[in-house]
Amino acid sequence: MTEKMILIPGRSAKQGTSLNIGKLKDEYKEVTSTLEMNTDEMAKRGLVDGDKVRLSNDIGETIVSCIGKKPEDLPDGMLFIPYGPPSSELMASDTAGCGMPLSKHMEVEIEKIST
Amino acid sequence: MSAAMRIVNGKVYDPANNIDGKIKEICIQDGRIVDSVPEDATIIDAQGMVVMPGGVDIHCHIAGPKVNAARKLQPEDHRHDVHPGTPFTRSGTGGTVPSTFATGYRYATLGYTTAMEAAVTPIGARHTLEEFHDTPVIDKGFYVLLGENIFLQNLLREKRMEEFNEAVAWWINATKAYTVKLVNPGGDEPWKGKKNSNVSDIDEKTDEGLTPRQIIEAFIKSVDKQGFPHPPHIHCNNLGHSGNYITTLETMKTAGDMRAHIAHIQFHSYGGELGKNPVSKAAEIVEYVDNHPNITCDVGQVMFGKSTIMTADAPLAYVLKGHTKGKWVNADTECESGCGIVPFNYQEHIYMHTLQWAIGLEIFLMAKDPWRVILSTDHPNGGSFMNYPKLIKLLMDKAFRHEEMKRVNQSALENCSLRDLDREFTLNEIAIITRAGPARALGLKNKGHLGVGADADITIYDEMDDKEMMFNAPRYVIKSGNTIIGNHEFITDFIGKLLHISPEYDKKIEEVVQPFFESYYSIEFSNYAVDDHYLHDHEVIATGKA
Amino acid sequence: MALKLKLHTKPEVPLEADCICPDRMQSLSLAEIENLTVFHGNRQVPLKDFFECSGDFDGEIDVEGDLVDVKHIASAMSFGKITVSGNVGVHTGAAMSGGEIIIEGDASDWVGPEMLGGRITIKGNAGHMVGSGYRGSTIGMQGGEIIVHGNVKNETGHVMRRGLIVIGGNSGDFTGVNMVAGTIIVLGEMGIRPGAGMKRGSIICQTKSELLPTFTKSCDYQPSFLRHYFKYLQSLGLTISDSLMNSPFERWCGDSIELNRGEILLYAGK
Amino acid sequence: MAENTKIIENATCTFCGCVCDDMILTVDLDEKKIIKSKNACVLGRAWFAEHTIDEDAPAAMIDGKEVSVEEAIEEAAQTLTKAKFPITYGLSDTTCEAQRQAVAITDRIKGNIDTTTSVCHGPSGLAFQGVGESTSTLGEVKNRADLVIYWGGNPAESHPRHFGRYAVTPKGMFTPRGKKDRTVVLVDVRKTKSSPVADILIRPKPGKDFEVLWALRALVKGKKLSDDIEERTGVPLEVLQDLSDRMKNCRFGVLFFGMGLTMTRGRHFNSGALLALATDLNEFTHFVAKPVRGHGNVTGADNVVSWQTGYPFGVNFSRGYPRFNPGEFTTVDTLANGHADAAMIIASDPASNFPKKAIQHLKSIPVVVLDTKMTETSKDAHVAFRTSTYGINTSGTVYRMDDVPITLRPAFESPFPDDESILKGINKRVNELMLAKHYASGASGEVKVAAPI
Questions:
Q1: Which of A76, A91, A100 to mutate to test the interface with D (most CBs of D within 10 A)?
Q2: Is residue B479 part of a domain?
Q3: For a surface tag, which of C111, D103, D190, D419 has the fewest beta carbons within 10 Å of its beta carbon?
Q4: Within a domain: residue C84?
């Protein structure tokens, strides 16, 4: 099952602390490939914490693992991920004459990877 | 240091040494003017040329936080006025707020070798010094904004005058400034704390119990007592408002017989009723200045065309924003200052703008003592410093002035006496208002003249009938003995130095400042004072009463 | 016979060729034209390093090749005609004041920025900021016409003051943003937030569009001037359906944050 | 406890734009590491703790092979001067002194310089150029602000001490009771760790910030709004009206904003709407706005590039003078469009956070990298320098997000050179190479050259 959702990459404290250790280190890689989704949406898709999902759009695709958030904190249809190499895979390069690629609110398709 | 050099056959204008157009040899060694140099010294033949000390700008805005904000604000102003680099000099951009490199090089291309940035917040001193390091050729210094400093105002209110003096000296040292700047004294607190209001009278008591006059008086006395080379540099209350000449006269009277410098006095010489079109009160202002040798001023001439208003007088900038309806920057600095920036355009057909232009010219032309009425455009508030050659032509060439007067708002000319003024400045007088006068007002003993011991900052112009053309293109510019411009071209780069003072103070004052600081500032006290590594080449000008 | 320029070598880095402009080629011999300076990145080289030049300049220039990395073609052009049979790079016709530019292919961002007069026709699509002002400027297009047959991206006619921009296809976000006056016609759909901050001027669109909450509907009507505009567009080769020609339009006024004297006309037909 | 320690007081943390200068660092001089960083937040503690010295790492590499720093400087200078469209990028995590050198190099090689601003608050910079800005230093917020609004940001995680040190809880001159004297409003599409600080929480529909800001501008100006505003934005009219009233009636209001505005559809117009709202409010009271800037010295980069060129970022020198055009001379564009033919990346890692297309081009051209650690960008670099860390190993100047400059107090020495000295070396060598080219092109005359500024 695939469905369009809005992905918001952003910063998190954990991402901040782990990048000090080193961007090539495992901890940073793990933080930046962990996707937040509300638990209702996860349940709807039969996902539990740690399951892998594929995110994709016109630009590219990436595989990340997901973790649940309370529905009142993260609304239906919305995903959050700390910035990093996985979110870059989905980012378009058109900057609309201002230098900034659209880095938040990216429309992505999400698909559970069966293991 | 530079090699020996001899300038021969030039007509020398050195008013400080009573030399008025005499053919005279000037010798240079090790960056200074000397009696004689060895036979093999480089010779510049200045036949048919005019030799003057390098120009000194006593009041301009060229570096620091507000200047940089104004730069960032106006890409459209830079785009049409590029400043290409050469293999020896850096590139940049111009417009009314040029980049640092363009600023230094462009001053040099007018024959100016010293310029004083007229308003820097203490917390912005470090930034200003960094920009100075990237402002080539000229020597430079800045005036630090202390008039709206809340800690100093607290001391004043409590009448702790000894500590006030110590604290002023501490702040000067902490920032590496040249003197104290006051801007619209008493106006910051109503602006920031009382919903964008302002003071309107020099004797108006604010809630804090101080009047602008008390602030002005305290700084004049403090600086007088400590013997700074340049007195408080004062931007009076009510800038730009009709009827403000009374405030200006009162401000000057507050000084008694102590020294004070009134900045851009043109903007403070308006009669008429508040809220209505002003009339000229240049005559009244000039009369006071002429009769009081303790007062110096710079004119703040308005030149038609693009300008950028940038001022610590935030309420004024807000008023102007109401006229332009365009971009506006307001920037409050904690415990120290306000700031406003508005891109502006002076237009001939507008009554107010023409009157401002005319009042500036009146002040120059009426002043009996040119030594104390100094040339400035309050760059870039009245217009860019790049207008100086045209301004010089307006002063030197009556026919040109009258041609220009045909293009402006005629009803404004009815309300001033510019049409009746026939005076034409001589080259010697131009040398006074652009060199000797500002150097003397600043207490810079080695600047603005060509006597033995002076800094070898020298400009050599081709003598021409068209004075605008002449002052726009010096053939040689020599800075600290180095030939920067030779035959109209840059032949080397040079950094120039910082000019600042270092008045003595009792270290104990830090214990008084620190608790206030820890409560109300957002950086640590020990990270506030600027350390010496921000001084590139620098010179400390002596303080203390002679 | 027109001057012919044919791109023979693809530039490695962007080529700035503001010399491809009638004003710069007027009264030059072919040899002089071949030696006009272009900037290949930071190197100055003669035009002939990239273009095969033939014919004589008689006011017209025909350019052939994929010029997607060639910038500033016809910048500040004031007369004559340039036809490009291919795509063009950024800043085509910047600050143009007269003459005609025809691009058979697509154009990149900044077509006719700060244009003063003349006409630019793009047969394909164009990028962002068609007929706009550069950053910081409050003065965009001040006259002339830009006709794009295909689609355009964001900020079409940003801070526009006068003139006409016609988009045959769709426009991106912020069509006519902060416009002061002038006319923009979009025959396809507009992106979000058209007319944001507009003071005066007209934006006409063939499809419905959600407008900002600071626009209010004043009426449905059938303005007669639109027929004239549409007839004119037909004469330029754009397709105008009969239903559009005879349809009523919703008239919205805004932006109320500014003067509220701009209008957006949205197709109200079935 | 280690034996050979020293304490550095009033040190500065350069991890984020808060640039807190009240750190008390305990340094183990034998181990060359900071073992305690008092007053630091969670990010600051990691910043200080993790910047240890890897003595074995090579200071310079060419194509992955260890070389001397001098050889690497030579190769970097050769690479950059050969290029026709060399780009310089990064600069937000280094000192102003290093930034000055980077602009100088780019000017001399007629290259293109851009900073991380372009993918951070660059759109706010464009908005600033469009409408201006009413702003203040953070101390004024602490002393005066009785209404504090955060819009599109999550400072609790990105700038942890922003609330405590500058804007929400500190007691100031006219806010003696700290938070009790303030109303805090948070506007964000999702609930975040910042939410608990807010007295009022407003959650618009995603992508509707512009509409909400526009509606507020209309209300502030006394204009009517369409009734369907809640349906369109997710925010009820009463809530907007209440916020508008609070903004007009406060004594000193501040709007802080984050990348929820600059990175979403609308970009610079979102920031512009917010700046315009703050400006409008000055008709009624004193109101300021301030972007919450990211990296330690990104604000310094804006300042240095501005004073040297006139423009804050996205500057091109290919014609011998600075030109500014975001979207053309910004790094995502010069890379994604395949324009750059060499790159110098300073203290930044575009290979791990740029759009994929830009990364692909970056990997196809010769790249010079200066960084304190190995990154996605440095691991494939043609020339890679390992440099010391600003604020930990080297002094210099850093600008806080409100343009206040602060001098750094280093804690311990690094065996690696700092960015400034490497860049000075490259600048000197580039200058020699460009002058040689100038003379080779037939320029005549004997010219004295002063030391490069």
A1: A100
A2: no
A3: D190
A4: no
| Closest in D140, D447, D449 to B192, CB measured | D140
Are D449 and B101 inside 8 Å of each other by CB? no
Band of pLDDT at residue D450, cut at 50, 70 and 90? very low
Q: In chain A, whose CA is at the least distance from the CA of D326?
A: A98
Give the closest-approach CA distance of C128 to chain A in angstroms: 6
Question: In whole angstroms, what is the distance from residue B58 CA to residue D352 CA?
Answer: 51
**Domains in chain C: how many in total?**
1
pLDDT at D443: 58
The yes/no answer to whether this complex scores an ipTM above 0.85 is yes
Domain of residue B107 covers 54-445
Q: Which CATH class is domain D122-291?
A: alpha beta
Parse chain A into domains and list their residue ranges.
3-112
D443 to chain B: which residues are within 8 Å by CB?
Answer: 87
DSSP H or E segment with residue B444: none
Phi then psi for residue B512, to 5 deg, are: -80, -40
Q: How much is the mean pLDDT over chain D?
A: 94
Can you list the residues of chain B whose pLDDT is less than 50?
Answer: 1
Element (H, E) at B114: strand B112-120
**Quick one: how far is CA B348 from the chain centroid?**
25
pLDDT in tens, B39-62: 999 999 999 999 999 999 999 999
The answer to whether the Cβ–Cβ distance between B79 and C134 falls below 8 Å is: yes
Q: pLDDT digits over B151-176, tens only?
A: 999 999 999 999 999 999 999 999 99
Nearest chain A residue to C109 by CA distance is A97
Count of alpha carbons within 13 angstroms of residue C125, beta-carbon side? 11
What was the pLDDT predicted at C243?
85
Q: Which of A93, A95, A98, A105 to mutate to test the interface with C (most CBs of C within 10 A)?
A: A98
Task: Provide the 3-class DSSP secondary structure of residue C186.
Answer: strand
Q: Is C133 contained in some domain?
A: yes
Residue B105 counted as domain residue? yes
Q: Residue C120: which domain range?
A: 109-267
For the D60-120+296-440 domain, the top CATH level (class) is: alpha beta
Residues of B in contact with D22 (CB under 8 A): 524
Q: What average pLDDT does the segment C147-154 reach?
A: 98
Average pLDDT over residues C102-122: 98
Q: Which two tokens stand for residue B515?
A: 């608790």
Q: Which residue has the higher pLDDT, D443 or D36?
A: D36
Q: Is residue C36 part of a domain?
A: no
Is D449 in Cβ contact with B493 (below 8 Å)?
yes
Q: Which of B173, B222, B230 is nearest to B58 (CA)?
A: B230
DSSP D394: B
| Contact state of D140 with B333 under an 8 Å Cβ cutoff | yes
